[in-house]
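# nightly structure sweep
# worker-07 picked up a monomer target from the shared queue
# config: single-sequence mode, recycle default, output format = structure tokens
# input follows
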Amino acid sequence: MSKPGGILRQAGPLMLGRGGATVVGFALPLILTRLLPQAEFGTYKQVWLVVTTAYFMLQLGLAQSLYYFLPRKDGRERAWLTQASMALVTLGAVCAAVLYGSRFLIARQFANPELATFALPMAVMTWLMIAAAPLEISLTAEGRVRTAAWIIFLSDAVRVAASVVPLLLGLGLHGFFWAYVVHAAVRFGLQCWFFFRRGGPQIDWTLMREQLAYALPFGAAVLLEIPQRTFHQWAVGWSVDAATFAIYAQGCFQVPIVNLLYAPISDILQVRFAESGVREHRVHLFHDANLRLAAVFFPFTAGMVAAAPLFIPALFTHVYDPSTVLIGLKLFGLMGAITGHALAESVVRLVMLDRVRRELALAWREVLPWGQLAVIACASLAACVPAVLISGMAAAGPRPFLALCAAGALYCAVYLGVIALMPGEGPPVARVRRMLLGATAAPV
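# output follows
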């Protein structure tokens, strides 16, 4: 059997879909910080924290299990999808009831009585989001990557447009959140339409046990991972008022490029692992995926740290200057919170990497392409120098966005220049050069 195209090629449509979604989705927090008072923006972030935490935790690995079962094409696809979908609809309904019933407790915990007034849209939104979780996953697992990409893009475009319009019409946060509910309902309706196009529901209790046996260990891991990942936000949210939480939330702002690249490659990697049982091929896939992600994430992270004093005011105005990493977070005692979160996240990633190493029967020196990663890291650090200089001179200036663009352009030029001029023609340097400066590495 011939090997399918490389991970980057297969993930291409998903990247394009997420790229288009990123363009419209990235604009939303920029718009909200300009349309909402700081306290209302903090309330929005608190509600969204509750919704997203429940959304990720209560899938219990069922939606993600479709990456494993659907690519088998064993004639039981309807059963796998029915069982996951019905379980998620039920879990979402239970979660919605619990959220609504505990609305006053949640509001007291955040010391924000206004939160209770958003309980109904918050609960309904959470239910519909959990119920529609299999939408893009099932399409990707079935090989309908282009359809999944279009849905990802259109879904975010509709979400942003529908949520901003109520604010422009003066309907406030209530109109904003009900627009989110409508968006989630449309997604759930689309999920139902794709579901019934495949045929009627089909349940096999033997297969259900097999699916649960596969999914629940992953779900249990997520039940631990999501709380530790979001704990810093919950802890800060319970300790400060909504306006201060808005500052902290922007300091922890997740740049969409992370999800834009990581999610498609991760999705395709899971499908490819399910298709291939050859250990050597799996190792090659894992190395290729990590190297391609590191080639972007290493320099991006280093550049963001170097240009942090420009990034926050450029995107969210000088009102959110206290969110700037390593400077403003010292206010309100938040520096310890973000540092603790970063350390905890690093430990979790090391544990996950060790699990992959043991599953693939690799030594630590083999689990990642360490040589190529070292080349990328060195170039990333060297490129920080001009970005730090520009940030130091222009951080308090009236045009932080232009300064950020200049720092970013110079950073990219230095990063690529260092790789091009790096001495040595050994495999690590050569492969990184091919990937970034020349032809794409051979498909795997």
